[in-house]
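Before a colleague's protein record goes any further, I have to sign it off. My question to you is simply how this chain folds and whether the tokens agree. I do not need a full report, just your reasoning and any doubts. This is what I was given:
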Amino acid sequence: MNILQSPLTRKLSAFVALETLDMETLARFHRRRRSFLPGHEMLHEGQKSRSAFILAEGWACAYKILPDGERQIVDFQIPGDFLGLRSILFRTADHSIEAITRIEATEVLASDILDGFAQAPRLATAVLWAASRDEAMVVEHLVNLGRRSAEERMAHFLLELGARLSLVGAGDKEGFDCPLTQYHLADALGLSAVHVNRVLRQLREEGLVTFQKGRVIFDDFNRLKALGGFDTAYLDQDGPFLR
């Protein structure tokens, strides 16, 4: 892999100018390449893990299963994201991660990460930024579930995905490819699949956004942004998508 073109490098470079030592450390992080099929559980809640993954291609979701069997998706992972980074610091994983599509990822041992951070403090700072950004997104997701209407939730969610994908060159203000089903959206947004279908149809009929055949198209970006109350400050990134 050309480390300069890796999604993780593109993502971290948005925060700090990576130097030669940082690139060499990232290259070591990408040595153990692995492939996973859709539906593969890469991490399960309660697992004791001493490794994490860096997602290079494909999509995954992080979730928790409630006692009644219901699933709450807490986040979606896209290229450039770490999978299970927190689990190597905790004694046990506090959530599960499943591949949504076929995935290409590199496995990074806890010792690799800790040694790499000791040798490349700028890189450690950049990864801390990425982790802090993920935490800020979780806060927005809580606001989504607690205070926004179904239409506002959907608008905000799709715009956030677009912004995240734009950072790694996989989306722009026109739209992005998206493998998520209405069931994924339902489990992430606290809605039923039927309600998700109704909301997407309403947003399409209003000329705001179209989500069909694995593609999200922003029909009226600015009006969708206004509907979702999408304040981009929490993402802490620049670029044409956020202007």
